[in-house]
């Protein structure tokens, strides 16, 4: 089914917002945010007029390690008491094909806003068993955490630093037409 114009809301029960960061120079830590919302206004006739906005609750971070999650909520990382949400607002959407798009926008973390571009794979749309039109997609980008004031690090005995600066962000999305 071709993508239809309209407003789409990200289904939090069937979507994930995750990240990956290099840890101790030899491995990666994966995590996700469990509370988020996003609205996509898609214009099938003029995709460049489409918009997207997302809000992530920073406190909802989950790396399967409560001690680490609490450290990530602290001022050393996200300072979630002062900055409870991350925000993304699109500034340009370019549909390259029915399966590929780029979404450029402003990402705000820790009160610092920087431009980012997400590469999007569109899996198509379908009507689910309850009569709802859904669009499935994956979106990914990489950011430098220090650009957002996240400077915490520690040296490790074997050389190097505990954390990499590059963060991979991944969204596996199922959006429902309203």
Automatic annotation (TrEMBL):
Belongs to the UPF0312 family. It comes from Corynebacterium amycolatum. Residues 7-176 form the Lipid/polyisoprenoid-binding YceI-like domain. SMART domains: YceI. It comes from the Bacteria. InterPro entries: Lipid/polyisoprenoid-bd_YceI, TTHA0802/YceI-like_sf. This is YceI family protein. Gene3D superfamilies: Lipid/polyisoprenoid-binding, YceI-like.
């Amino acid at each position: 089914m071709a993508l239809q114009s309209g407003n789409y809301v990200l289904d939090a029960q069937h979507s994930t917002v995750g990240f990956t960061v290099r840890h101790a120079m030899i491995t990666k830590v994966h995590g996700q945010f469990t509370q988020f919302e996003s609205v996509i206004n898609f214009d099938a006739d003029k995709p460049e007029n489409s918009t997207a906005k997302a809000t992530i609750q920073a406190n909802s971070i989950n790396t399967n390690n409560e001690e680490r999650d609490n450290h990530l909520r602290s001022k050393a990382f996200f300072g979630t008491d002062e900055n409870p949400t991350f925000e993304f607002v699109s500034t340009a959407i370019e549909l390259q094909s029915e399966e590929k798009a780029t979404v450029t926008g402003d990402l705000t973390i820790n009160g610092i806003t920087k431009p980012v571009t997400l590469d999007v794979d569109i899996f198509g749309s379908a009507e689910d068993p309850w009569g709802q039109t859904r669009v499935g997609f994956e979106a990914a980008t990489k950011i430098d955490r220090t650009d957002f004031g996240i400077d915490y690090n520690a040296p490790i005995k074997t050389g190097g630093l505990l954390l990499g600066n590059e963060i991979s962000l991944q969204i596996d999305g199922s959006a429902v037409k309203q």
